[in-house]
Amino acid sequence: MSAPAKDLTPLVRPQSIALVGATPLESNKLASWALGNLLKHDVPADLYLVNPRYDTLEGRPCYPDLGSLPATPDLVLVLVPAAAAIDVLRQAEALGSQAAILFSSGFGEGDRAGSPLDLELKAFLSDTPMAVCGPNTNGVINCIDRIPAGFPPYAMADELPAGNLGVVSQSGALVSSLVQHLLGNGLGLTVGFAVGNGIDLTVGDYVRFLATDDRTEQIVVYAEGLHDAERFFAAADEARAAGKPVHMMKAGRSPEGADAARTHIGALVGDYDAFAARCRQHGILMAHDLAELAALPLARGRWGQRIGVLSSSGAMAGILADSARQHGFDVPPLGPAAHSALAERMALGDPRNPLDLTGQSVVDHGLLPAALEAMGDDPGLDVLVHGMLIGPDTIIDKQMDSLVAQTQQGTPVAVYSTPGWHSVDYPKLADAGIPVFNSPDRLFRCLAEWEKRRHLPRDEEPQTWPDETLDDLLADIASPACAPAEYAQDQPAAVKLLGDGLDHKTELGLVELNVVPSDIAAAAARLDARRRELDLSDAVVVAQPMAEPGIELIVGTRVDPEAGPCVVAGLGGVLAELVDDVAIAPAPLSAAEAHALLDATRAGTLLDGYRGRTRSDRDAAAEVLVRLGRIAARHHTEAEINPLIVHTSGVTAVDVLSGGR
After folding, report:
1. Of 72, 372, 541, 582, which alpha carbon lies 20 to 30 A from 460's?
2. Does the pLDDT value for residue 292 go beyond 60?
3. 257 pLDDT band (50/70/90 cuts)?
4. CA distances (Å), origin 468, targets 159, 557, 632, 647, 651
């Protein structure tokens, strides 16, 4: 049973703070930065400085140790080297302090994982009632209450960037860059948490705190590898239930990125696609980069799939249309009413989508509002995207007024700034909730994520299903195998070796296909010789009837370290690895989700009867995926069926690997 959640209030809003390892500001060390930030922002908490080398620091008394303090501090900032840090934590616990921030690195990063010091810290943290942030962190910054308990660069500015976003980052070095992007969008923070190694308090703990924090309206997360995936998703569900969107960027999309994350924070990193699919189930919007992550909180109102594009530059209108289509949006023709209204209004150019307002818009300031109104009233369009150019302030101001007015009519509007400016550079747009982007691709990636919010799964009662094992499933769909001498059918057979880890039989010469019954004994002898040649002592030779032809899939289950039990599906057979056309989804699956998983690969098109071919029984294939999902969710079974042959009626499992690989 997991330990109860710790109270993070003393970590975020302490009434008293002790700095152990405090140093003079002039030393320009990390410990001095932490002190300088607290003094600069006139922290509304009692401040105790601890360092046996000083009697006073910055005009304040300095104590030799925590036991010498006049009162027990709520929060202890541990600013000493790793070797001395655990003793400080023990002293803080003995005094009754409720929270600590352990800034030191040198515990579980890289090759230090499992070191004596790392194990000692983990043992202490597993049993302490204190809420401990870190190690390897740069602190917790409460921007609303002016309590900068740390030293990220954004906390060293003259003003803390107060706002309504909670930020959780596993990278302390990266968080200030993220905050800079947020500021460019006119956004600010309630609290910024730098998780560090997250041995005690994890990403999920911070998200849960923000989900219940009255002042936080949205949550932004940067993560690399999660020790606490289930806790994180449960916290995200709490945030969603409280009406607080969670936006996330996750490192590890490539093998190299996953390796970097493991080295940085010592965490297991799973399959990115599996994790992203799990996030979609929990309503978490995903970003590709920091700028996109900082833009996701800009969403207001409804969005949609059908895009109306307009700009005073035909080139820019075309670029935006290209990007829209690239990201899966429709750029449909104008409806008759919009076409007619624009034809009457435009002296130059053609009324179409994407719309080039031409040079007429420079002198005819009524053209843009007329175009916005016509396209905004078009029932075939969901969203308008405007390409904002460089121009005289008077023209740009009138364009902004027109965009704001159309938004007030209920039309979703997004803007691409061709000069590369941000929301704060267009205050009228920012105040009206119109998102501004300096990249067309980023604009449409964000629109795609916002559009997903309309299709989030509804919270449903947990479903129950019969307890089933992989053997139960295979009993229904597998081609029966037997010893070659026992093969009693009159149809051709597949003769092959079966054994643990034998997943490339064709390449290894371990299978013979379409063997007529009279040749089975000879084929079995050849394979037995091959078995001895490769020293496959645990493998056995079997024969099974050749399956009827059909579409060959690879399907299976996987237990991901972050996403949990998952189902995979894609094109299979001998081309599975060459084609690399596999999609993944968290288990269990509904029938609709199973069909969507098939449609996420080329297999879906083939099953539907590509180019006049006979349709295959995709319902039977989807049922296999549903059953695999239930088995994976209940038993955490790892298995692979390759190929699963989908016929015009029914399916056949030809080759199965199970037990993890």
Report:
1. 582
2. yes
3. very low
4. 59, 14, 10, 24, 18
Angle, CA of 522, 524 and 530, to the nearest 5°: 110
Rounded Cα distance between 186 and 177, Å, is 14
Question: pLDDT tens, 544-562?
Answer: 999 888 999 999 999 998 8
φ, ψ for residue 173 (rounded to 5)? -70, -35
81-90, 209-218, 392-401, 532-541: least confident range: 532-541
The single residue listed with the structure tokens 């400085």 is 49
Pairing, β 564-571 against β 551-560 = antiparallel
What global pTM score does this model have? Answer: 0.86
Going by DSSP bridges, is the β-strand pair 355-356/383-388 parallel, antiparallel, or unpaired? Answer: unpaired
Please tell me the number of Cα atoms within 13 Å of 51 on its side-chain side.
21
Identify the burial level of 458 via C-beta atoms within 10 angstroms of its C-beta, where 0-12 means exposed, 13-18 middle and 19 or more buried.
exposed
CB neighbour class for 242 (10 Å; exposed up to 12, middle 13-18, buried from 19): middle
The Cα 55–Cα 302 span in angstroms is 61
CA distance 252 to 262: 9
Q: What are phi and psi of 437, to 5 degrees?
A: -125, 150
Distance in angstroms (rounded) separating the CA atoms of residues 473 and 469: 7
Buried b (16+ CB within 10 A) or exposed e, 525-562: eebbebbeeeebeebebbbbbbbeebbbbbbbbbbbbb
